[in-house]
Every structure is written in C-alpha cells, then in structure tokens.
Amino acid sequence: MPTLYPIGTNIVVQPCELPNTTPSGLYLTPTNERSKNLYEVTAVGPDVGMLLGICAGTKVILGQFDGEKVEFGGETYRIIDVSKVLAIID
Fold first, then answer.
1. 84 CB contacts (<8 Å, ≥6 apart)?
2. What is the tens place of the pLDDT at every residue in 47-67?
3. Rg of the chain over CA atoms, in angstroms?
4. CA 79 to CA 43: how far, in whole Å?
5. Which of 13, 18, 5 is nearest to 67 (CA)?
6. Stated pTM of the model
7. How does pLDDT run across 62-83, given as a tens digit for each residue?
8. Which one of 2.40.160.40, 2.60.260.20, 2.30.33.40, 3.40.50.1980 gives the CATH number of domain 10-20+28-89?
9. Which 3 state secondary structure label does DSSP give 27?
10. DSSP 38-72
11. What is the layout of strands, in order, in the sheet containing 68-72?
12. C-alpha dist (Å) from residue 81 to 14, 67, 88
C-alpha cells in the first residue's frame, strides 16, 4: 500500500475531533467551531526535526485555509509547511 511522505519542512495532517467530555466527565455540546482547525500529524518531513516538538501523533491547530488539501487512499489529508502551525495541543 502506498504511503504519503512529506519532503523538506512539510507535515501531513488529518482532521481530528475534540473529546465530547471534560476530564471531570462534563458533557460538551458538539460544535463545528471547536474542532474545524484541529488536526493530528500523521507524517513529518526530514527537515522538521524534534526541536519543534512536532512528530506523528501530535495534535496541532492550523489556519482554516492553510496548506494543500489532498485525497489519498480514500482519506482526506492536508500538507502544510511546519511554520504555518499556530499551536500545539498537549
């Protein structure tokens, strides 16, 4: 099966959802505004390095229109330069 590998300082991200409950168990109502810019990193380019703390599995917030949308293997991904990452979610 083919794999998507970014080059340079690019990263590959996939949309992900925020949890519907807080750590204390309170239910949060679903809204599109909360999670539309939340992504999970699936692959990093060779020039990204660990200095930024970004690796596969890291959750990041991106601008709404940043990066290139790509359909690959029946899934939707976004390829973006690591400098466009607005925040890292710990």
1. 62, 63, 66, 67
2. 887 767 899 999 999 998 899
3. 14
4. 10
5. 13
6. 0.79
7. 998 899 999 998 999 999 999 9
8. 2.30.33.40
9. strand
10. EEEEEEE-TTT-STT---TT-EEEE-TT-SEEEEE
11. 68-72, 75-81, 10-15, 38-44, 59-62, 85-89
12. 14, 7, 14
Sole residue written with tokens 């899934």? 75
Identity of the amino acid at 55: C
CA distance 41 to 45: 11
Q: Where are the domains of the chain?
A: 10-20+28-89
